[in-house]
Amino acid sequence: MQLEYTLQIADNALILGHRLSEWCGHGPILEQDIAITNIALDLIGQARSLYQYAAEVEGKGRTEDDLAYLRIGTQFRNTLLVEQPKGNFGTTIVRQFLFDAFHFAFYQELCNSKDETLAAVAKKSLKEVTYHLRFSSEWVIRLGDGTAESHEKMQTALNDLWAYTGELFKASDADQWALENGIGVDLEVVKKFWEEKVSEILKMATLEQPADGWMQTGGKQGRHTEHLGYILAEMQYLQRAYPGQEW
Fold this sequence. Notes:
- It is a single chain.
- By secondary structure, the protein is mainly α.
- The protein has a single domain (2-241), classed as Ferritin.
- 65% of the residues lie in helices and 0% in strands.
- It contains ten helices and no strands.
- It has helices spanning 2-21, 30-58, 64-69, 89-110, 116-144, 148-161, 173-180, 187-204, 226-235, 237-241.
- α2 packs antiparallel against α5, α4 packs antiparallel against α5 (116-144) and α4 (89-110) packs across α6.
């Protein structure tokens, strides 16, 4: 279960980092292009630390590269939110904000983990995620409370992505095991922060928070949207075509 829990955290960071990397060279302006690319690098760096630890926990001789590049889609444990297509810039910002608010509170709680390695990764990553949340929050407000067109695009993105947010707080067996053993995070505590932060920023952005309803889930159990398959086909191509390559 410890392996499963570590992979959940790592897979979220890797898949979202890959999604953000798709903006490299395509950002609306140079400054934001660089900012998003740097956030992608932060997330991939977090994923690398977690995969190294996951390989150690597993103890079967696999490496970080094996875990990132040689698992199939059903073996990934990321939430469905992070694998959604980048869409327009507003879609990326909304997705990023919804995840950042979760990620920040999650790492805050994980700093108290009895697992010294996970706690150390959380403490280091929290500095990065603090910036991520500030960046995405500011852009949600700027675009939501901007022009009529930017407001409409942000509201549409929010409506489309909202159904994927419930999974962030739905405890998997690994989540429950980790919490009971003092290793993991109480997702109810994270949810309380998330709800308050999201409500605050959406109000400032003049965006209407969608009503909670049926939520898309399954990512933590390896049931993904078709989008993950395309991500892995692109991300894993080099390693599968030319085995033994290293980061």
